[in-house]
Amino acid sequence: MKKIAIKSYGEPDDVVACVEAPDVGEPGADEVVFRTVAFPINPADISFIRGKYRLKPPLPATPGAECVGRISAVGSAVGAVRRGDLVINLDRENWAQERRVKADRVIVLPPDSDPLQSAMLRINPPTARLLLDDFVPLKEGDWIIQNAANSSVGHLVIAFAKRRRLRTINVVRNEEAFPALKELGADACLVDGDGLHQRAEAITGGAEVRLGIDAVAGAATARIAACLAPGATLCAYGSMSGDPITVPSSEMIYRDIRLRGFLLGRHLDRRGTDEVQRFYHDIENDLREAKFRIGIERLYPIENIREALAHALRSRSSGKILVTPNGPVG
After folding, report:
1. Torsion angle defined by CA atoms of residues 95, 101, 103 and 109, in that order, rounded to the nearest 10 degrees
2. Which phi and psi angles does 74 have, rounded to 5°?
3. Is residue 9 one of the residues assigned to a domain?
4. How many Cβ atoms sit within 10 Å of the Cβ of residue 42?
5. Fewer CB near the terminus (10 Å): N or C of the chain?
């Protein structure tokens, strides 16, 4: 069996290798084995490789926060999962050809699910959904504002907001992103920078913006905060700039802006196993009904992991780089 291992934390080209590893063996009574169909390369995976992620397991370590796989074996006590089922795995270490996990850690997908789209179901879609669900009680017609709107999560926020008839202001680095965002259903698009709050106010006509979503950090967070109504919530789920969040104290003291952080695992842990299963099924159904597809830029075999990582690092599109560990996906 092949898997990806990092020998030390550092730049991907220096520390990542595709190595031979023992097969995972037969499943225990409450376990399943699946062969990995595909996994995406996410920014969090690259942070993990560099040693800048919140988790730093002993080395050598295998990255991989998400994947999709096909069940090849089930334990004697497992009833809800069958051989041949397409599943996403809630555990990590997924950059491998094969995995053995507890049966309650996989989500069984409908048989007609697109495997490549399903490989990207575990993290970004629930992140977008929970950013809209868990912080502010939003009603039809409410405005929200987000930066990094051209990211995968940004696209999904637009799609989910549109289904709920929420209105979105979408902040990006340049105007080239506007047409794609408008096609997704964005109500307004702005280029980040000075005077953002005046430009946002002109769009809303002075209507309250009750939720801000920040994935950039640094001074960008303060610009989003300035666009919000007094008492509104600003939720940070990323730090693409690598800079500390800087929000003037006056925003919190005088305008009561509430700064919250989002971590997917923490929000899922608040839900029971059955609720998490239903939650992912609802998301998969919503994406299907909306005919929403996450862009895929290129597929790589697992042996070419360094090339795939280099592509992911230089890419400026919102399309994902996927790896197919067991060959082409039929």
Report:
1. 10
2. -130, 145
3. yes
4. 21
5. C
The answer to whether the predicted template modeling score (pTM) of the entire model surpasses 0.90 is yes
Q: What is the chain's mean pLDDT, rounded? A: 95
Bridge partners (DSSP) listed for residue 87: 69, 108
Burial of residue 191 (CB within 10 Å: 0-12, 13-18, 19+) is middle
Domain count, the chain: 2
Strand partners, 18: 4
| List of residues 6+ apart from 95 with CB closer than 8 A | 3, 4, 39, 45, 62, 63, 64, 67, 302, 305, 323, 325
The catalytic residues are: 53
The answer on 144 and 113 residing in a single domain is no
With the C-alpha atoms ordered 65, 67, 71, 73, is the resulting torsion angle positive or negative?
negative
pLDDT digit string (tens) for 77-119? 999 999 999 999 999 999 999 999 999 999 999 999 999 999 9
Residue 153: exposure state from Cβ atoms within 10 A (0-12, 13-18, ≥19): buried
- The range of the structural domain enclosing residue 133 comes to 124-265
